[in-house]
Amino acid sequence: MSTRRICVVTGSRAEYGLLFWLMRAIRDCVDLQLQVVATGMHLSPEFGLTYRAIEEDGFRIDAKVEMLLSSDTSVAIGKSVGLGTIGFADVLQQLRPDVLVLLGDRFEMLAAATAAMIARVPIAHIHGGEVTEGAVDESIRHAITKMAHLHFVAAPAYGRRVVQLGEQPDRVFVVGALGVEGVHRLKLLDRPSLEQALEFGMGEKCLLVTFHPATLDPGSTSEQFAALLAALDERSDINLIFTMPNADTDGRVIFGMIEQLVAKRPATAKAFRTLGQLRYLSCMKHCDGVVGNSSSALIEAPSLRTGSINIGKRQTGRLKADSVIDCEPSLESIRLGLQRLYSEEFRDALPHTVNPYGSGKVSEEIVRTLRSAPLENIVLKRFYDSPGDPIGAGSGG
After folding, report:
1. Measured distance CA(256)–CA(254) in Å, rounded
2. CA atoms of 108 and 15, how far apart (whole Å)
3. What are the strands of the beta sheet with 172-174, ordered from one edge?
4. CB atoms within 10 A of CB 373
5. Predicted local confidence at residue 338, as pLDDT
6. What is the pTM assigned to this prediction?
7. Which domains does the chain have, with CATH numbers?
8. C-alpha closest to that of 183 among 77, 293, 297
9. Number of C-alpha atoms within 13 angstroms, CB side, residue 39?
C-alpha cells in the first residue's frame, strides 16, 4: 500500500492539545505521512503565536493559513471564514493530501472543509454528532459532517446522530474523545510543580474558570459573565485561575472583564492567555472544580474525578457525567452551584464518576482506519435514510 498523506488542521493551542497524540501516531506510522497546517489563533500575537508550541514539540508545520481578523464581531468572523477558504484552497493544491483531518466545530474548520469539499479532498471529521444548542458551533459541526467522508465520534449516541444526518453507518467509528486520551497519557504535574509553573499559589480552595461566549445569545455575553464574576467575587476564600476565551464573537468582552477582576484580586486570581494541555489538565486535576461553559468541563474533567459547574446554554445537548452541575447564567443559580460543588455529598460521589466519553486509545483507533479505509470514489456520497440503529462499524470508546 502506498504512503497516504494525512493533513491535520489546527487553529488553537487548546485544539492542538487534543490532536497531539493523534498527530504523533500519524507521524510514527510507516505508511502514513503527516502534514500539518496551522491557522487561526496559532498565528495571532494576541493569542501568543502558539504555532511555536507545535514546532517545539518536534512537528513540522507544512503550511500556515492567515485568516483571523483583529476583531471579534460577527462581521469579522464571517470575513475570516472567507479568507480561510481562500487560503486553504491554495494549501490543498500545494500539499495534495489524501485525507484532511478536522476536529470539531469552529469557524476555522468550516473554512477548511469548504475548500476541501470543492477540491474533492476526502475529509475525516472528529467529534461529529454532538449537540451544543447555545453556540453557532452547533450548525458548523453538522455542516462539516455533511461535507465529511469518515466520521470519528466520541460516543454511540453521537454516532447514531451522524447516521441520522444521512451518513453511511460503515463510515462512522465510535472511538471516544481525544481529550480523555490526553488525560490518561500525559504525566500531569503534582501540585507544587504546578504552582511553580503557574507562579501562583492555589491556596486552600481553588477553581479553574473557563468561559466562552454563548454565540447564539446575542448581547448576553457580558451579562452572563458578570453574574459569574459576581458569584466568584463573593467567595474571597477561593483562589481563581482564569483561561482567556477563544476568538469568538464578543470574546474581547470577557477578556476585559477578567483583567478587571484579576487587577482587583492580584493575590488570589490570575489569568492565562494559554495554559497548554499539560498545565490545563494539571489545573483541572488539582483545582476543586471547573467553572464556566467549556466542553472540557464535560469531556475531560470527569476522567479526573473533578466536579464541574456548567453555566448557561452553550453546552446544552452534550452527554454529561454526574460530576457536572448545570446552572442558569444568574447570580443566584451560580451561587447555589458553588454551594453544591463544595458540599460533602457531592464531593463524596466524585470518585465514582463514570465518563461517557470513553477511556482512551482514541488515536490508535483513528490511525487504523486512516490506514485501511478505502479512498477510491469515497467523495461520491450517498444519503443513508434507512430507519433503525445500524451503528456498529466502529470499536467502543
Report:
1. 5
2. 11
3. 63-65, 32-39, 4-10, 99-103, 123-126, 150-153, 172-174
4. 17
5. 97
6. 0.87
7. 4-176+360-372 (3.40.50.2000), 187-352 (3.40.50.2000)
8. 297
9. 29
What pLDDT, on the 0 to 100 scale, is given for residue 163? 96
State the pLDDT at residue 395: 46
Phi, psi angles (nearest 5°) of residue 82: -65, -45
Q: How far apart are CA 243 and CA 48, in angstroms?
A: 13
Contacts of 181 (CB under 8 A, 6+ apart): 21, 360, 361, 362, 363
The rounded distance, in Å, linking the Cα atoms of 280 and 5 is 31
Count of Cβ atoms closer than 10 Å to residue 378 Cβ: 16
* Averages of pLDDT over each 10 residues, the chain, 397 residues: 92 90 97 97 85 94 92 85 97 98 94 98 97 80 97 96 95 95 94 97 96 68 90 94 76 84 94 90 97 94 97 89 95 97 97 90 95 94 76 49
CA 318 → CA 31, 126, 131, 142, 302, distances in Å? 36, 15, 5, 14, 14
C-alpha cell at 55: 514546532
What per-residue confidence (pLDDT) applies to 314?
85
User: CA nearest 245: which of 232, 233, 256?
Assistant: 256
